[in-house]
Amino acid sequence: MLILVAYLLTFATGLGCALTAHTELRTGSGKAPIVRVWSAYACFELILLLPVTIYFYVFHGDWFLTYFISSGEIPSAVALVGFLIQIGLGAVGFWLGLRLVRSEQRSLGWMCGGVVCALLLAIFWMIQRRVRWVGSYEQYQGKYGLVFFGENAGLVWGAVILGLLLVVGYGYLILHLIRIRRG
Asked: Which of 20, 74, 83, 151 is 20 to 30 A distant from 93 in Cα terms?
């Protein structure tokens, strides 16, 4: 997972969570329904999404940052702020979804989600030449010693396994929210 992908995915999952729980969020009285849906999403974000992002930053940092900066040059406090921004983007996505649900504009929310997904694809298409090679920042800048993405077993297996965990985890969250909606 790349940093831009992580940020957009976090925003989109927060938005999608609120839109999926539209019945409970729209008709629920008080803050209890919001707290219930938000806590389910926050668990997904903190237990799955954030650790996956941290994994890629720690073990494949220069690739994760798409070689725009060396991960070794980033102070740990700045990295922490980056992770807090990611958490905040999930909250912003959820809040936007909540506002759209409460104002009866769910279709606009799904369109926003579609735009974010299109943006994810566009970003990936634009940077795919940078991330098809794996190595350090110095290797990328010097164009030496890089390994093709498919030949780096650690990165490939990490992407496959953690990607599947995210898909299954988010699928479970959505099914959980649908079950809550049905009563």
From this structure: 74
